[in-house]
Amino acid sequence: MFSLYIKNHKEEEKIKKKIICFLLVLCVAAAMLPMTGLAAGDTSGTAYAVEGGKIYFDSAAGTITGADDGITSANIPAKIDGAAVTSIGERAFRNCTDLASVVIPEGVVSIEMAAFSKCSGLTSVVVPEGVTRIEMAAFSGCTALSSVMIPSSVTDIGDFAFSDTAYYNTPSNWENGVLYMGPALIKAEESLSGEYSIKEGTTCIATDAFDKCAGLTSVVIPDGVKGIGGLAFGNCTGLTSLEIPKSVTVINDFAFFGCSGLTSMVIPEGVSSVGDWMFYDCSGLKAVIIPDSVTSIGEWAFLGCRCLESAIIPKNVTSIGEEAFYGCTGLTYVTIPSGVSYISEDAFKDCTGLSVVYFGGTKQQWESLGGDDAISGTGARVIFNNYPESSIDIATGETVFGSVLDNTLTVSGDVSAASPVYAALYGENGRMISCGIMTAPSSAGVSGAASAKLIWVSADGFTPKGECMEFALN
């Protein structure tokens, strides 16, 4: 499953330990042992009577924490002793095999890990509007569960959340190899191949949804999807094209893990982080546009992305995680904003092609961050007090710091060997068209594109004046 991009035994063991920890968490869902005769979950909270026994509530956390295993029906109120119920806690009803019906109140926002796991008598469930998260194995092993209503508010569905349920196990519920539950795409068969268009009206792509669909080459995600789960496209090695709609605000860790055929990605505005392992071993990835809404770059986020050419880290990022760009040997230019308060000491380890780092802050800020440790061994030089002067969306016929005539965009500024400018032009699909240090007027073209994005920085505070670069939008 995992192909590690590592160079020495110590680093290999370190990364393997992280992977083992992740796999152990997954195993929890597959190894829930029966607790016959005992109450499910934590019974230390406030008791509330239901049919067949009691449920238990932590009023400080707003969480249903446990239940007597003999309960037959649970109509959970919106409030218990005046405190709002906001979550169904981890393993709260696990192994309540006599539970035939449950009412989850409005106001609940999360259903936690294994909350209803192995409730084999449960036949239907309505998840109320307002719930945003259904965690790992939440309803796994509910073998009689044949009817599930999921609201459009849900943005995150964990792995195995509905595995081994009657709904999951009924072949007629799978549409051409893909299982939907209302607005949620739960799982695709690994044999799915070629191009696939997700149904209109889908709002959530669950964890593991397309994991190991190696034959997939393209997936069309409709506008309206809000969340993409961890490993949702993991190990889709044949996937070359994936456009994320602007409606997406949540992309979880591991989302594109091992997508070695993926060449470009535009992360939409509204996503707040590039999660841990998100693009791990996307060895064909050349360009990623990260929006200003992102505030953190996670651990191993781009590890092994050997073809990644540049990294424009947006202005609101405050942390760059452990080995975030480890092994990105094709990386040549990086911009880092002055607001970064943490850079892992090995964030750019083995980025052997890195030549220039543009840092928005002072040398003193860089040193206090331990910035030199982060780029140790790369040979890169750091240019201080510098950050992208502009990031513009451009279209044919548009005027930006100059004029457009005959489908040619002219960007103004002084360019010379003494005053170089780094510029990167991205096409509308996120693919980098041209990049590099400009020491003289230069030009590049985007064939057949209606729009593009131009980002540039300079060594001495770029002031727009005089012609320097031309980009043709044909």
CATH class division of the largest domain: Alpha Beta
Number of strands: 41
Terminal CA distance reads 43 Å
Indicate the structural class: mainly beta
Using the alpha-carbon principal axes, give the shape.
globular
CATH architecture of the largest domain: Alpha-Beta Horseshoe
Q: Examine the coordinates and then state which fold CATH places here, giving the name of the CATH topology of the largest domain.
A: Leucine-rich repeat, LRR (right-handed beta-alpha superhelix)
Provide a descriptive summary of the structure in words.
The chain has 474 residues and is mainly beta. It folds into three domains: 41-158, Ribonuclease Inhibitor (Leucine-rich repeat, LRR (right-handed beta-alpha superhelix)); 170-383, Ribonuclease Inhibitor (Leucine-rich repeat, LRR (right-handed beta-alpha superhelix), Alpha-Beta Horseshoe), CATH 3.80.10.10; 390-473, no CATH class. Helix content is 8%, strand content 31%. The protein contains four helices and 41 strands. Strands 1, 2, 3, 4, 8, 10, 12 and 14 form an eight-stranded mixed β-sheet that branches. Strand 6 (79-80) and strand 7 (83-84) form a beta hairpin. The longest helix has 22 residues, at 9-30. It is globular and about 70 Å long. Mean pLDDT is 82; it is low at 1-10, 28-38, 396-417 and 457-474.
What's this entry about, in short?
With 474 residues, the chain is mainly beta. The protein has three domains: 41-158, Ribonuclease Inhibitor (Leucine-rich repeat, LRR (right-handed beta-alpha superhelix), Alpha-Beta Horseshoe); 170-383, Leucine-rich repeat, LRR (right-handed beta-alpha superhelix), CATH 3.80.10.10; 390-473, no CATH class.
